[in-house]
Design brief:
2 helices; alpha+beta; three-stranded antiparallel sheet
Length: 86
């Protein structure tokens, strides 16, 4: 799940109280390792959360999508080469 948080967000959810100190303490972006700033994207996983600049989230998403397509195509070719009916 992805959540975008902006410093001037009027809702000021509980997440602002969790993420705010990370930003203020100079925590680094998961993708580029530069200090985080607002707005921030938080990707929530089963065992961990990652925090990214909004542009870095877009770049990472693009790379993940590209890797998925490459893996899918490689798997598809391998299956078809091994199939007894191919």
């Amino acid at each position: 799940m992805s959540i975008i948080l902006g410093f001037d967000d009027p809702s000021k959810s509980e997440l602002h109280f969790i993420v705010g100190p990370l930003v203020e303490s100079g925590s680094k972006c998961f993708y580029c390792y530069k200090p985080l700033g607002w707005p921030i994207v938080m990707w929530h996983g089963g065992t961990a959360d990652i925090f990214l600049h909004h542009d870095c989230a877009q770049d990472l998403g693009t790379l993940l999508g590209s890797d998925y397509i490459k893996a899918k195509n490689a798997w598809s070719k391998e299956i078809h080469q091994k199939a007894p009916f191919a």
